[in-house]
Amino acid sequence: MVSKTLSTTQNNIAPALLVWFAQYGRHDLPWQKPRSAYRVWVSEIMLQQTQVTTVIPYFERFMQAFKDVNELATAPIDTVLHQWTGLGYYARARNLHKAAQQIQQQHAGRFPTEYEAVLALPGIGPSTAGAILAQAFGQRHAILDGNVKRVLSRLHAIEGWPGQKKVEQVLWAIAEKNTPEQDLVNYTQAIMDLGATVCKRTQPQCDQCPLSEQCQAHATGTETLYPTPKAKKTKPVKETCMLMIMDEGGRILLEQRPPSGIWGGLWSFPECQPDDDPADWCHSHLALSITSTQALPALRHTFSHYHLDIEPVCLQAAPISSPMVMDTERLFWYNMRKPDERGLPAPIKTLLETLAVEYEPPKLE
Fold first, then answer.
1. Which CATH number fits domain 6-225: 1.10.340.30, 1.10.10.10, 3.30.2010.10, 3.40.50.1100?
2. Which tens digit of pLDDT belongs to each residue from 162-171?
3. What is the value of pTM for the model shown?
4. Which of 131, 234, 285, 312 sits at a 20 to 30 Å CA gap from 106?
5. What DSSP assignment string belongs to 94-136?
């Protein structure tokens, strides 16, 4: 069900929104100065499902590491993932790297200015493509990220979860009608800022909103009912045992995960089933002899669609070399004292820090 007034929606929010933005909007975000296509693109990818305050330090470090699209394209994926460590949703980093290579190969290292060419890049959907072109080149394209969906859903009392195709189509139509012909850079930032700073998911600040007099949800005091949330499902729980294997020099064995899937391409610990004997598993799978084991406190890491319960076990390997470990590129002895630029999932980074504090390896004779 949608608002009956939808068919008469006109471009009537831009003037008020732009006046509000001039005084209250965010004008000092790091990707705005300078506002190059490369910087806007990287910021938009980082901002997918991540708040501005979290993104800013990652963005600044990323720009220092990869100053332009060509530096990003030629960088090893491990170096890119290292810069992304802790930001989550690592497919974004892999797609960013692939897109940079595509820009280098197909567009002579220049970010494309045509909508269809931008949309063809890995990791970029219609809203992200529109946001990049509007902010970097002033082109007229509507956007519909999570903040904008919330603003428009409340403004027109649009019922239904915005992830549903029919509801999303209605919101796209409203977004298109309300996108002005001029001042696209400011309008695009303004409507995102309104959703992020005023029209918040909880406790919206309607007394500070320039659109409150037009807002149908505000008129009936039902702001927090919109947008309709997605029906919640109980997340399944998976279990794993992570093996934190230490050699005689204090290095930790890491294993690179497959290029796709959870933590794709990142470095983690070898894993076995919780009911496996860790020492036996190491002997049969890695040809490593284990001299001692020590369990660390379990922890839970939550992904978007399931919980992962991790049982970390520290193991001391006998001071002998293992041909299986030495000869494969997917296994690496990691020196915690001199860490290199290697992509690590946040829980793995936390476990390594815990290991340095809590684990006491046996003294060698």
1. 1.10.340.30
2. 999 999 999 9
3. 0.82
4. 131
5. HHHHHHHHHHHHHSTTS---SHHHHHTSTT--HHHHHHHHHHH
